[in-house]
Amino acid sequence: xxxxxxxxxxxGQNNLFSQHLITLYYNSPIHNALVNSIAYMxxxxxxxxxxxxxxxxxxxxxxxxxxxxxxxxxxxxxxxxVQINHLPFENCRLAYDKEEDDVTGIFYSKDWANxxxxxxxxxxxxxxxxxxxxxxxxQVIYAHGMMAGSSYYAKPDYFGALNYVELSYQMGMYxxxxxxxxxxxxxxxxxxxxxxQKEEREAIRREWETRLSGASxxxxxxxxxxxxxxxxxxxxxxxxSDADKQYQFLSEETAxxxxxxxxxxxxxxxxxxxxxxxxxxxxxxxxxxxxxxTQVIRPYQRIIEEVFTPILGDVNIQMNSVFDDGxxxxxxxxxxxxxxxxxxxxxxxxxxxxxxxxVTYNGAQIASALxxxxx
Length: 375
Fold this sequence. Notes:
With 375 residues, the protein is an alpha+beta fold. The protein is built from eight helices and twelve strands. The strands form five sheets. The protein has a three-stranded antiparallel beta sheet. Strands 5-6-7 form a three-stranded antiparallel beta sheet, with no helix packed on it. A two-stranded antiparallel sheet has the order 1-2. The two termini are 56 Å apart.
């Protein structure tokens, strides 16, 4: 975070941290799936108010960026808010007034990497303030979750797992480039033309490192030019032992740590199948969903409710669950089971002979039934 002389607060290296989070979102499969799933849960079934037009974007930014910005439009008589629009958080930077020592609104730009261009020129939007509605009928709301170690921008809740999200991205890029470039292994380069001075050695090292290191350079070939064959660089393969096991470990550990960062209780409720196969039973799913809804989803929804309830006046915003009518699933409810006769399928077709509706089955029995159906 850095105060820019033009009046806004820079966010991250080159003022592009929000864009960096989007890059990771698009390039880490499990992170992408979790952000989408949790944002959808936060949005739920809406509020039944004018907020619903912007709710999807607000919920998404609150999860991905840890904050959101919303544009508020006042009525013609400046007495009430008639429209709420979502402003993509990656296009917003906080406006700061040194004299007032306070955030006064935001600057909005479609391209923060090129603020001098016509498209990227930042536009100031004042912070929400009913007392200036007549002078400024277009205002902005900036809200966020818990903030620690920051003065202006809140970090997303998965920030502790950001290195693993980055690792997931780099591993994918590494494997793609390794395949495209022919699966060339790691190697050692030995120069046989004497030992240069320290400065020259460092220059050579930096040049070769730039050319060959990093995930995007995986598998690239080498080309050298020499007057004397005896002075040509000697290149030896440096194979990685148990590479398959290391990649498997990194893949599993990365997925695990990303889910920890997102506070996932049960991966299956987000559409992610883990190694347990059909081990996830009904009871586990229900308990996991209830815990996740209580500890993760509802706190996010309360942020939105507390921000917009005062703005909409008499309307009391109550966000609903993603489930119909907000009714929780009863873990003690009976489950219909089919009875498949143990006959030779070559002689007798499989038939549903009975439906049992008055017996409650435990988790182990449900898992066993699922295995039978899958087979």
